[in-house]
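cron nightly-structures :: item 1 of 1
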Amino acid sequence: MGKVVVDQRNNDEVEKEGTVIEEWEEEDEAEPQIGDGGDGGGIVLQNIPWGEHVLSIAREVLQDFGDDMELYAFKISPRGYVYVRLDKLSNAYGCPSMEEIERYSRQYNKRLEEEGSKGEIPNDLALEVSSPGAERILRVPDDLHRFRDFPMIVLYVDEEGAGAETQKSGVFLLDSFEADSGNCIWKLADVRENRDPSSKGRPLSRKQKDWRLKLHAYQNLIKVTLYLGFSE
């Protein structure tokens, strides 16, 4: 995941692609949740007075990048840190190039400095711009069609279990879905987790290939992420 950090406190670009600085406020490393403003996507402003203003600037700058780039996540903290994750729609995993991340960071930081000098927002904000990476939580239903060719880890509510509903998970490929009704059908992905340990790397059996999981509402999908293991 490419990343650029700019800290207006010393008016310097302080981090690129994983090098660490001592005083940077690290994001919470808790398990990603849908809408958390990080790997779970969404907008998190925490009722900070200048939040809507910096968000509107972020969206204005993004217009210079055309329809191929979107805000995947945006989050600010009371200490004046601004976290932006950009999603490139034409990239297989949604990752902008390092050059695109740097260009967005420069343009956005310039606008923040201009607004800060006018007193519209704090003049000492720190900015981090990155891509969501393959660890992203997929947005249901919007991302299902987009990533349908990739194996996905699906956490879902078992509709066929007896008695109380239970949660299950598996590595699947999306076989089909209906955007209006929310009905979706999944098949087993040909990955190590779904193979018989004694099969010594052989592909799925005919029975496994024919197996289908039918979910009758998007609400039964608790969380969907891309599978990052090997299919060989």
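cron nightly-structures :: done
The longest helix spans residues 98-117.
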